[in-house]
TrEMBL record:
Short name of one Pfam family: PG_binding_1
Organism encoding this protein: Fictibacillus macauensis ZFHKF-1
A molecular-function term among this protein's GO annotations: peptidoglycan L,D-transpeptidase activity
Keyword entries, A-Z: Cell shape, Cell wall biogenesis/degradation, Hydrolase, Peptidoglycan synthesis, Signal, Transferase
Name the record gives this protein: Putative peptidoglycan binding domain-containing protein
Superkingdom field: Bacteria
GO biological process, alphabetically ordered: cell wall organization; peptidoglycan-protein cross-linking; regulation of cell shape
Pathway: Glycan biosynthesis; Cell wall biogenesis; peptidoglycan biosynthesis
Amino acid sequence: MKFVSKVTALLLLSASVTSTVTLHPRVEAANKKASDDYIIINKTYNKLAYYRDKKLVRVYSVATGRKQSYTPEGKFKIVQKLVNRPYYKGHIPGGDPRNPLGKRWLGISIPNKGKAAGWGSVYGIHGNNNPRTIGKYASSGCIRMFNSEIEKSLYPKVLLNTPVYITRSYKSFAALAKKIGYIKGKKFTALTLGQRGSMIKELQQNLQKHGYPIKLTKRYDVSTKKAVTAFQKKFYLNETGIVDAETYNLLRSSQTRPTIVTTQATFKGWADSHSFEAHDVLTGAPTVYQAQQSAFMNALQDDGTYYLSYIHHQNGQYFLQKVTAYSPFEKKLPF
């Protein structure tokens, strides 16, 4: 009887575990075409943008490979949707809190070293069991998300066959979407030495507004090129002397030379009134100045709370942004 009781108890325990932890993943099928949706992952910022019907829906913070080569780059598709996928390598069942894949898996059509066997099961967008890694280069190649964001926000929206573009770039998500042909935009023709016309006159007028004493000749002459180069240097752009779209738009704005914000109050005030997702939906993505980014890479200690993601330019000022929660800003910032 004691043996039977022990067996019964084990069976009851097994049934209890099975009822709370899904041991086998549930595969979800898409119910409509995903041709108008797109996922863009930028490893430079560790951000994921989700587009639906040619419009940016939301931008999420993610974690990517510990080394650049770990997370492959290119154009792929979502080929799997799994709920409570087991972590086979660690023999951890799906849905278990210890599972490093979280409770949702969006498999990406990246082959396993060129073999079809790994299609959608090796690389994926998934949850995690260590939220402190989000925003960092921490994975073995997959794209990690906060559990709440993939479970409640991204996973329910994404359809099978949704295109995925993974890249490294300092361009905005809007620019990347245009680059891959997802969003069509007007092509800007660069202005360079020797050109003439009304756009050159407007260029020279804008240079004058920014304090460059050049003449309105309607011709892109040497003095105009020197002024453009000086402007680009001032705003940390590529000093080419050629007016590209970014230089042109910045010249047309009333923006003055950026200043570095290093006070806790200013930083906290801006951070409290903006979220990464809301801001990025409105503007496409932040403008990043590579030259300034490197100067502050060691400004903050990575203690799991203050993690330097990039420097964001807003209203003529630079803001050091974090990819983690805003709640710790009551602490004294170490700069």
